[in-house]
Amino acid sequence: MFRLKYLILIFVISFTWISGNELLAQRPPHGGDWRFQSGQEIRERIEQMRMWKLLEVLDLSDEEAEKFLSIFNAFQKEQKELEQRKREILKELEDELSEEKVDLKKVQSSLDDLEENRILFENNRVSFLSKAKEVLSLEQQARLVLFEERFAERVKDMIRKVRRGKMEG
Q: CB within 8 A of 45, min separation 6: which ones?
């Protein structure tokens, strides 16, 4: 397990170095406070923390971790693409509704696209969980499901706290 954590740490450090060495070298003008970093920087850090904690919770062997990460990374990539497409559709819908004369066919098309996107998003999750079953024990599968729910709640709580702090300060 120590070896696995060491490999993950090297992966995270390498990823950070490769994906944004210049970005990390620059400190925000606000004294380096994470609250003043860009949304993208914060998302990346949350994702790194999520991956680290998930692997810790699952307690995978090196071989299991390698297989799981392959499946998980493919799942994450597809989910991000679907999220981006959803944002694009919502923008199109918003633009159409802001027009003086709303084209109901375009609105219906956007709504249909949103529904299709939602189905693809959920199907991708179901596919991921099905593939994860091939790598994870039943206990690890349960830990994965619980982790995903609890981690999302913790992030939402952190965001609420930060927003409250901004409103108060």
A: 34
Q: Write the CA distances from 53 to 18, 59, 147, integer angstroms.
A: 22, 10, 9
CA–CA dist 146, 82 (Å, integer): 23
How is residue 103 annotated by DSSP? -
**pLDDT tens for each residue of 42-89:** 778 888 888 889 999 999 999 999 999 999 999 999 999 999 999 999
Q: For residue 113, count CB atoms less than 10 angstroms from its CB and return exposed for 0-12, middle for 13-18, buried for 19 or more.
A: middle
How far is C-alpha 8 from the geometric centre of its chain's CA atoms? Answer: 18
Q: b/e per residue, 84-111, with b = 16+ CB within 10 A?
A: ebbeebeebbeebeeeeeeeeeeeeebe
